[in-house]
Design goal:
Oligomer: heterotrimer
Structural class of chain C: mainly alpha
Helix content of chain C: over 70%
Shape of chain C: flat
Largest sheet of chain C: none
Largest sheet of chain B: none
Helix content of chain B: over 70%
Chains: A mainly alpha, B mainly alpha, C mainly alpha
Strand content of chain B: under 5%
């Protein structure tokens, strides 16, 4: 029965992916992409990767969707100036995509069996980190450098978005609230965030021992903040204000600080002193969760559209 | 008849009823004549179906916390589906009056 | 009986997945954008039901967490869509920004 379920899931995902590509209208393609992202979460759970399932649903089905929908709404009616692709151009894109697909397929078919794995080594070293979730151990202990750089990349992306603001508006607030707020939205924005914040904190807290963690928790918190701001219950802050910037920088700065202290108190950069690994990791995760939440929310909010207060 | 067996039978009955409601929702979606009644079909039937499935899975939840989480999923679905349907219905209405 | 339960639960999951897929196909082919957005709502409830059933059938404890996020973000996306379809979303660029 489970094999049949997996096969149907795979077939459905393929059809949805084709639907996304074949759809000509932008909004239809975005909606199909959202459905694809939510469905992909189911597939990741069946692949025994609940951490990835949570991230896929939060990012692929949630934040990317609103980012794309807002971009589409902003572009609609502006008059498209760029020419549609010529036939040769389209052919070139199709050939390039087909070659990438063929290459990926070849790589998958060529996987060695049994696949080379570091899982036993990761599980063996797990007690030293005092964590229960091997994924968190990989992200914050074994490969902490990757995670650190990843968070910096998110910040760089945000700086890229901010830099699209005209000079006079630098440091001002983005506009998130629509011209008219429907009554049901205002109601949802009052009722949902308490649930959402609890779910976010829960995701962060279980992350040490069970699937979940900073990225999932940060995305939930960002979504709740966006909901409140979209409903106009609370204005979006100036991008130059101190609190958002502190939140944004806090996670990576704490992470870097603890990483450098590793030279003094442990074996080197990004090493944790023995016995203190778990509290340090939880502290880093807490700060990173807030940073990720602020960064994702402000990425969706976009560049400044109002002159800064003062 | 043991408690475990009784619980299993309850699970099977409730989950089957829930699955049938999902079928009813899909049939409504395929057969109903206009967008608003189609929206009606999925938002009502599917949420009731999810509720029955959550109720059916309750006896199988290993712990009280696990059972509570199931209820939370359903409550959250109620809360959000009600609002999301309202908002989608508004969007449909507007598309109709202003094509 | 105890051995039959996982099979019944995964059978129900398969059933709901197929039914949701059929409804999804119908909705995504619609010409009206708001009706297409029902696909996300469908996946919110149908997907959560499938996740909970799979979780109970295979004893995957994290399934209910995934279902929780699925319902949360499905609703969130519907809200985002309803605002975006306004055509006068707040993200509209100010005139001086236009090329």
């Amino acid at each position: 029965m489970m094999a049949l379920l997996d096969l149907s899931l795979a077939a459905l995902l393929l059809l949805l992916a084709l639907g996304v590509v074949a759809e000509r209208q932008e909004r239809g393609a975005i909606i199909a992409f959202l459905a694809f992202g939510l469905m992909l979460g189911l597939a990741w759970l069946r692949l025994a990767a609940p951490d990835v399932a949570l991230t896929e649903i939060a990012i692929g089905g949630g934040v990317t969707g609103i980012l794309l929908l807002r971009a589409e709404a902003a572009l609609r009616g502006r008059g498209k100036t760029e020419e549609p692709l010529r036939r040769t151009g389209r052919l070139a894109v199709a050939v390039a995509c087909a070659m990438i697909s063929a290459g990926l397929g070849y790589a998958v078919l060529r996987f060695a069996t049994p696949a080379p794995t570091l899982a036993p080594a990761a599980a063996e070293a797990l007690p030293a980190t005092e964590l229960g979730n091997p994924v968190t151990a990989v992200l914050l202990a074994y490969r902490a450098l990757d995670t650190l750089l990843e968070k910096v990349v998110v910040l760089l992306a945000l700086i890229g978005v901010w830099s699209l603001a005209p000079d006079g508006l630098w440091g001002g607030a983005p506009v998130v609230k629509p011209a008219a707020v429907p009554a049901p939205l205002a109601w949802l924005a009052r009722v949902l965030p308490p649930f959402g914040v609890v779910i976010g904190i829960y995701m962060f807290w279980v992350g040490a021992d069970a699937p979940g963690g900073t990225f999932q928790a940060g995305t939930v918190l960002a979504a709740m903040w966006l909901l409140v701001t979209m409903a106009g219950l609370y204005p979006a802050p100036d991008t130059g204000a101190r609190l958002p910037r502190l939140l944004l920088a806090g996670g990576p700065v704490l992470f870097l600080g603890i990483a450098f202290l590793g030279f003094v108190f442990a074996e080197g950069f990004l090493a944790y002193p023995e016995g203190l690994a778990k509290p340090l990791i939880v502290a880093i995760e807490a700060a990173l969760t807030l940073s990720v939440a602020a960064a994702l929310a402000l990425l969706v909010a976009g560049p400044a559209r109002k002159a800064p207060a003062r | 008849m043991s408690m475990g067996l009784l619980a299993d039978i309850a699970t099977i009955v409730l989950v089957s009823a829930g699955a049938l409601l999902f079928l009813a929702g899909a049939l409504g979606l395929l057969r109903f004549p206009d967008s608003l009644s189609r929206l009606h079909a999925i938002s009502k039937a599917d949420n009731l179906g999810l509720g029955l499935i959550v109720l059916g899975l309750m006896p199988q939840a290993g712990s009280i916390a696990g059972g509570l989480k199931l209820v939370c999923v359903w409550l959250l679905a109620q809360l959000s589906a009600a609002t999301a349907s309202q908002l989608l219905a508004r969007a449909l209405q507007r598309d109709r009056t202003r094509p | 009986m105890a051995d039959a339960l996982p099979a019944v639960l995964s059978g129900a999951a398969l059933f709901i997945l197929v039914v949701t897929a059929i409804a999804l196909w119908r909705v995504l082919r619609s010409g009206i954008a708001a009706e297409r957005m029902m696909a996300v709502q469908l996946l919110g409830t149908g997907g959560a039901a499938v996740l909970l059933l799979i979780g109970a059938a295979t004893a995957a404890a994290a399934a209910s967490d995934v279902a929780l996020l699925l319902t949360l973000f499905a609703a969130f996306s519907c809200v985002a869509f309803a605002l975006g379809s306004d055509g006068e979303g707040g993200d509209r660029a100010s005139p001086e920004d236009r090329p």
